Amino acid sequence: MPATQTSLVVIRGNSGSGKTTLAKAIREAYGQRGLAIVSQDVVRREMLRELDVPGGVNIGLIKTICLHALTHGHHVVLEGILTGSRYGGMLDGLRRDHQGPATFFYMDVPWEETLLRHETRPQRSQFTPQQMAEWFKERDLLPGGYEHLLDHSLSVEGATQHILQTSGLASTPSGSPRPGAM
């Protein structure tokens, strides 16, 4: 068991809202060691090549990856659409099963802004605005009221600092490798 408590940060929101960019900015601001990014897209689309379906294999695998990293001394930023109807039970279980702090954020980005952000993404040609419109769910908040809303007017830097402060990661020592880390 690690000597220090690990933190879980979950960033949810619609496709194109800026979740991946924000997760990378958090890791950059924190330091390159000791903070893992777990991306729903990487697990579901790249590792498994699975459709986003209820009960999909990716759902349990995401939880397993997060808990494994957390219990082995890594802070975790989990990012993805993570639709409440499909992933809510897993996210609630992850929050309960993790022994340290867990802070959840929802990117509150309106449809018009989502389309503008989508045009700046490398994968903008992989899916159309029409497909994104089918996936879009306005304020798909989890029950319980524990998610923090990230307003679309926040800059990446502002959202990064807000998450680091709110989650407690701003006061966590960064940059020093754990025993056994490369």
Descriptive notes:
- The protein is of the alpha/beta class.
- It contains seven helices and five strands, in the order E-H-E-H-H-E-H-E-H-H-E-H.
- It has a five-stranded parallel β-sheet with strand order 2-3-1-4-5, with helices on both faces.
- The longest helix is centred in the middle third of the chain and has 15 residues, at 57-71.
Properties at a glance:
alpha/beta, single chain, 42% helix, 182 residues, disordered C terminus, five-stranded parallel beta sheet
Q: How is this fold's topology laid out?
A:
Blueprint: E1 8-13, H1 19-30, E2 35-39, H2 40-47, H3 57-71, E3 75-80, H4 84-97, E4 102-108, H5 111-118, H6 129-135, E5 147-151, H7 156-167
Parallel strand pairs: 1-3, 1-4, 2-3, 4-5
Helix pairs in contact: 1-7, 3-4
Q: Name the shape in a single word.
A: globular
- Helix residue percentage: 40-55%
Report strand %.
Answer: 15-25%
The side-by-side strand order for the widest beta sheet comes to 2-3-1-4-5
Count of individual beta strands: 5
* Largest sheet entry: 5 strands, parallel
Class by alpha and beta content? alpha/beta
Q: Mean pLDDT, rounded to whole units?
A: 89
User: Helix count, per DSSP?
Assistant: 7
Describe this structure in a few short sentences.
This protein has 182 residues and is an alpha/beta fold.
